[in-house]
Amino acid sequence: MFKIKRLKRLTIGDYLIPAFLILLAIIIIIPIWHVFTISLVPQHVFFQTRLLLYPSELTFAHHTRILNFQLMRSGLATTLFVTLTSTAYVMFLNVTFAYAMLKPIPGRKFFWIYLMFTMFFGGGLVPWFMLIVNLGLVNNRLVMVLPHGVAIMTVILMQSYIRTLSPEYEESAKLDGAGDMRLLWSIVLPLCKPMLATLSLFAAVAGWNRWFEGLMFMQRPGGWPLQLVLRNLLDNVALATEGLPLEIRLTTFGEGLQSAAVILTMIPIICVYPFLQKYFVKGITLGGVKG
After folding, report:
1. What domains sit in the chain, N to C, each tagged with a CATH number?
2. Which of 126, 216, 234, 252 is 20 to 30 A (C-alpha) from 144?
3. 228 touches 214 (CB < 8 A)
């Protein structure tokens, strides 16, 4: 006799949780969509309807002006350099450190205590400023890369994921004469792709959004990161309209230029998510479980 499987009875939570998530998504999406539509409409359409849900008249003058804005171009180049360099730098240091701390090396406990100490205590803004100046990193784009090397949470997540791997892989490789570096490169890293993709995404987003070091140490506007350019543009939209002919100024307005800058700043990093999404949940789930 076959048993008839009864369907699970839906509870009030089965309705409330999806409804809450849908409402939360709408709350997040509407402001972004509003900013997007502002960047696509002429000035008279913007003043007619303050909450724009769809553009009744299109113009790409704001996006064209922002793309031709010299500070945006230099800021994009700086931010791309910082994002790519910082991601590679952070991943190299954290992955090698996490793997090394799993081995019975001398002084491992001291290094762990030292790293954990930096998680809760910092030297302060003034010593940090003096250190950067004494290292000669003023007006150097590496000031937005080098101080962000080892992150304790990244190391912990990476170690937790490596512990979930079966030790038989390393044991069989050692029988074939593989050393620690060969084990890391040929065995561990290929098995850690979900976690590597997840941590790389975290590092890339952090590098893309980095602006404070640019504000503190980049004295030349040509070295500002993109987020700092956007910040100054939102504070003073006249930066993007200086020296423009009158006919171009008549086709653009401040809020449209600011909205176009916000959207163009968001697009590159948003495009990365779909390619790493399949690794994201798996990496966080397994990395948070200690094997």
Report:
1. 76-225+273-287 (1.10.3720.10)
2. 234
3. yes
Q: Which of 216, 246, 225, 252 has the alpha carbon at shortest distance from 66?
A: 252
Q: Which two tokens stand for residue 76?
A: 């994009």
Asked whether 208 and 60 are in contact (CB, 8 A), the reply is: no
Residue 134 contacts residue 157 (beta carbons within 8 Å): no
Which strand (E) or helix (H) includes residue 86? Answer: helix 70-100
pLDDT tens per residue across all 291 residues of the chain = 455 555 567 788 788 888 999 999 999 898 889 889 988 888 888 777 767 777 778 888 888 888 888 888 999 999 999 999 999 999 999 999 888 888 888 888 888 888 888 888 877 888 889 999 999 999 999 999 999 888 888 888 888 888 888 777 777 877 777 777 888 888 888 888 888 888 998 899 999 999 999 999 998 888 899 999 988 888 887 766 666 666 666 667 788 888 889 998 988 888 887 777 766 665 555 544 444
Question: Do 233 and 240 contact (CB within 8 A), yes or no?
Answer: yes
Q: What single-letter amino acid sits at 26?
A: I
